[in-house]
Structures are given as C-alpha cells and as structure tokens.
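This part of the workshop introduces the protein records we will be handling. An example says more than a description, so a record of this kind follows:
>
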Amino acid sequence: MSQSSCPVPPYVTSDKTSFAYVSASKRWPTGTIDDVHRSIFETEDEPKQKEGKAIVEALAKLKYEIQHDRLLTPLEDDGKSDITDYNKRLVSLDSPTWMNVPWLFAECYLYRYGRRVHTYFSRSTHWKSYDAFFRQKLSALKSSRPAILELAAKYKTLIIQLREIDENNMPRIEVEQAERMLFLEMCEICLWGNSTDLSLLPSLTYDDVQKLQGAEVRKSAEKNVLVSDLPSAYRILKGTQESGKEVRRIDIILDNAGFELFVDLILAGYLLESGLATRIILHPKTIPWYVSDVVAADFQTLLYVLARPNDIFPTEKWGTPAQSRISGADEENLGFLFRNWCHLHGEGQLILRPHLFWTTAYSYWELPSQEPELLEDLKQSEMVIFKGDLNYRKLTADARLSSPRLLHAMWSKAVPFASAIGPLGRGSGLRVLALRTCKSDAVVGLAEREDERIRPEDGRDESTRTKKWAWSGKYAVMQFCDGKT
C-alpha cells in the first residue's frame, strides 16, 4: 500500500508540531473498552459476561501497546480481503512503532485492529451484532434534539413549496436566485453538522431565501469558510438538470452518524425533490469505524427515531417525562421526513452502497490502482460529495503541509485542491466536492498567506510550524474540482 504516487510524504505520529502526535499520544483508545465494560455489567447472562471479558482483555492489550509505543504487529486473518494489504504495507514501513508511523495508516490500522477484536463479536454467541460505538452515536443524536426538530419543520415547509413552485407565480429570475441560494444553504447545513448555529440559517423557504444575498446573516455564517466553490458545483448540477438528462446521480461518501447523518439526508432529500438529482447513492462503512462513522444499521436507528421519537428523545435533560415528550406538531414533522425518505428509498432514488475500500488504509490517490471498478462506477455520477475530515485527508493523501520557505519537499496550504487530490483531479472523470470542517493539519487550496493570517488566532507566534487553528473545527472548506473537463 505504498503512497509513492503522491510526491509528498504523509504526516507521522512522531511529528510533535502536528495533530497526528496529539491524536496518537492523547486520544487513542478508551471509549470502546469503557463501553464493553458497561455492557458486561448491564447483563446477568454469565456466558455473555465471559465472552465480553475476553473482548475487553484484547482491547486492553491494544491500549497498552499504544501507550508504551510498541511495534505494530501483523493483523490476524479474519476472512476479509483487506488483511493481506494491511500486512504488506506494515512490512513496507519497516517495523514501525505506534509513535513513529504514518498517521493515516496508523489510525486505519487501529480501527481495523479493532475489527480484529470485533471478530470475537462475530464468532461469539452473544455479541455477534454488537457495535461498540452505538451508545455514543445514539447519545449524540439525542443531544441534537432541538436542531433536529427545527430542521424537520423547515424541511417539511421547503419540500411542500418545492412541489408547488409552478403555482406560486414567482418571476423566473427570483426562482433561479432562490434555487441557487437554497443549494448553498443546504450544503452549509451539511458542512457544519453538529456545529451548525441554526440562528445563522435562513428559513429555507422560497418566500425568504432570495433576500439572503449579501445579508448580514450570510456574512456571519460564511466568515469561517476559507474556501467555497459551491457556486461552481451548483452551475454544473443546474446545467445537467436543464439539459434534460434522464438519470442525474449524485454520490455522498458519508462521515459521521447521528445528527450529521440526519443533515446528510436533509441534503439528499432536497437534491431529489428539487430535481438537481434523480438518484442519490450513499456510501456508509462496512464495519464500525473511527468511532462515529456511519454503518448501514445507523440508518435504521435514525428512521426509528423519526417514526417513534417518544421512544428515544424524552430524557431528564428536557424536563419531566410529560414536558420532554415530542409535541404533536413536531411529531408530525418528523413523520413527514420518515415518510419522505422511505418513499425515496422505496422508489430507488435513495440507495445505500457500502464498500470495503472505505475502511482500508489506502489514500484516495490509490483508488485507480486498488479499486478500478469502484472508480469506474463513481464516474457515472454527476458529482461525488466527500464528507468530513478523514475523507479529506484521504483525498489529499494526508500529505504533510508546510510553508515552502521551511521545507521545499512539502506542499504549502496554497497548493490547488485539484492538484492535491492527484488522480481524482483534472481529467479523472470525476467531479469531486469536499465538504470539510478542519480538524487536522491537511488543508489545501487556501489563498496565498491565508495560513499566516489565521495562525496568530491560536495565540502563537506566526512563525511557529504548529497550526492549531486547523484542528478545532472552527474553520471549513468547500472545494470542488471538475475532473470531467
């Protein structure tokens, strides 16, 4: 699994100026152990407890190896085809330790190792379908209750208006302006996910949205978006719609479950109802991954929440049981989403398509060589939307970035996005749209000296190589490359 196709070396866990070091030394891994411990104590079934304790012991061994900077060891064969690739890459890295290894590989190996521990689940009698991250995902979904209820109401109003657009007798120029602004707003909701400040968002109706251009509310919402290529992406989709092309497919490479999956489906539903797409293909992971990444079962959970909200949402956080129940109006709005999304799925317009490639350690520079059939399938899409931080790191090969004044072998953050994504860029046959809040060092396509302008905001001298501003999720990029031209 060589990354030789990318000319720039990746971030490594030994680089103390990078988030790779922080992540490896302070964040890996405790949550899974705690979760299984809790589940063991919640059951009175002795055979299940015994199996659970064996899983905890395996996870504790992994934690010890990380904390004491032990060698990464070959993964045991669990019947999946990616194990050989992981182990070949491990050999090529010449016996790396946890604190001196390419970060992208180490994180993927960590969760794949976790999947090796998950083979204890699959081979067990009592833990076969257990997702050690499910409890955390559900908790995050519950905590997003106010945002879910507000967006559900706005989505219902918008979809009804979209269906009645021909009856509203709006001037065509106003309709076009509103359509463009709605696309921008929907993508921004999808971008920020749980970070969304709903007070900054419009009402998402045709009646009001055309008034937003140049308004203070948009300026406030956009101030931390360092790059936005959304207008270019919209022109492509609108042009395809107006061309009369019968099948207009958009793919979304998903990131997190919970509220983020909810807003991903808000975007998907809007794209279908507006006619910008006729089919949306959603790409979840095949195994529990990076704690909160979407697996197919998370869709079932979300749909259950929409259909039976009072089975999930009432908690002490929202008052007494009576006070915390979902009201009739809110319950109807959630039911509208449930029926809308189930209908789109039933009609073959909203499709789930997991693939093992998304949980390999390959960067997306290696997609053409490692999964040519998947690449050819993605080329059938009008646009492929990559969500989140990990997908962005894989798009850019997690290439180490610095000022060219310091290390000429590294890219600067001003390297064009189309160049940084290599074989998925110009001439690839793909249209790539990345929606990413910045939570690690890899950020490309910035204006010249933008990095130097922002860096003092983290309280450090601007000459430091540490880029903490890029770690917090405060800033974001929405970058587009048309590889079909």
About this structure: The two ends are 29 Å apart (CA to CA). The CA atoms of residues 141 and 377 lie 32 Å apart.
